[in-house]
Structure formats: C-alpha cells, structure tokens
Amino acid sequence: MSLPPSPRPPRGPRRRSLLASAAGAALLVGCTGGSGSGEPGADPSAAEAARARAARDSEDLAARYAAVIAAHPGLAERLGPLREDVVRHAEAFGGVRAPSPAASGTAPAASPSGSARAAGPADDSGAVPADEKGALALLAGAERKLADRRGRALLDVPGELARLLASAAAAGAAHVFLLTEG
Fold first, then answer.
1. Cα–Cα distance, 31 to 65 (Å, whole number)
2. Which of 16, 37, 89, 140 would you label with 1, given CA atoms 20 to 30 Å apart?
C-alpha cells in the first residue's frame, strides 16, 4: 500500500536534506586521509596562507554581521548566533576573537585583523542596505560566496585544513539557508 502524496508542494530544500548534504560533504572530505602534516605534495607555506586567508575572510564576515546588527538592531536575535559561528570559524583558522556588537553597542570600524575593510567578502563599499530584507540578502550573498570559495580551496590543502574548510563551508551553506528562509 502506498501513501498518498503530500497536499503541499515542497518549497526549496528541506533542513534535513541541507544538513545531510553538508554532513555528507564533510564526511567525504574526512575520508581523504592524512592529518595535514607530512602528506605527499603538501606545501606548508601554501597551507598556512590558506589558513590565514580563511581566518581573514571569517573576520571580515563577522564584521559584516556586526555592521548589519548595528544598522538593524531588530535582527540582532536572529543574526547573533550566526555571527558567533563565524567568529568561532575565525578562531579555528587562527584569527582573533572579535568583540560582540552587543557588548560594544556599535559595529567595529575595522576587522580584527586590522584591515580597514568592514565590508567583508560581499561588498567593499561598507554600506548596509536600509531595509532588513536587503541586509539579509547581502549577508546571504557574502556567506554563499565564501562557502563556494572555501569549497574550491579545500581541494588544494592538506587533510586537516581541508576538513576544517569543508566544515566552515557547510556551516556557511546552512547560514545561507537560514538567512533566506521566511
């Protein structure tokens, strides 16, 4: 006996399928072997450069989240946990912990790495859209670009760093879904 089809058509990816695909991607990368050191063809300086770039990218993205939260305080509850994830990614890549926008009350003028780019990966102008929907779209675009870039970069780095990049890319893809949902 077969079950009748669902009365409502699915809209976009389901959370379970998104999380399952992210976990599957991380699992596939985890099966590539090696601990990241001593792998044949692994260039330590290239791996460190990739790690530093990933930390910088996460710091810039955290600054973008802080700027959006400062411009749209009503989004703070929704964006705070996502920003904290991005800050933890920066720390995992060796970056510096950024202060919470709630603690300082304002958006940081510069990223923790000392660069003057508060705009982050999506927009170099530093402008936050005046409407919440536009601000969320800006963050989703930044997360999407960064997740895609990390997905491509993990092919060129040793095992442990590749796993870390894959995990951050999967989290970024989940953030995109959460930012565009509703």
1. 33
2. 16
Which residues are within 8 A (CB) of 163 and not within 5 positions of it... i.e. 6 or more apart? 26, 29, 30
Is residue 58 within 8 Å of 87, Cβ to Cβ? yes
Query: Phi, psi at residue 129, to the nearest 5°?
Result: -55, 145
pLDDT digits (tens, 9 = 90+) for 68-83: 999 999 999 999 999 9
Q: What is the dihedral of CA 141, 146, 151, 153, to 10 degrees?
A: 150
Q: Angle at CA 165, nearest 5°, toward 75 and 67?
A: 25
With contact defined as beta carbons under 8 Å apart, do 135 and 174 qualify?
no
Q: pLDDT value at position 96?
A: 72
Q: Say how far apart CA 54 and CA 106 lie, in whole Å.
A: 25
CA distance 59 to 164: 16
Helix intervals (H) in 31-158: 44-71, 76-92, 101-104, 132-153
Give the CA dihedral 51, 53, 58, 62, nearest 10 degrees.
140
**Residue 156 near residue 43, CB atoms below 8 Å:** no
Q: What is the largest CA-CA distance in the chain?
A: 64
Report field, pTM of the whole predicted structure over 0.85: no
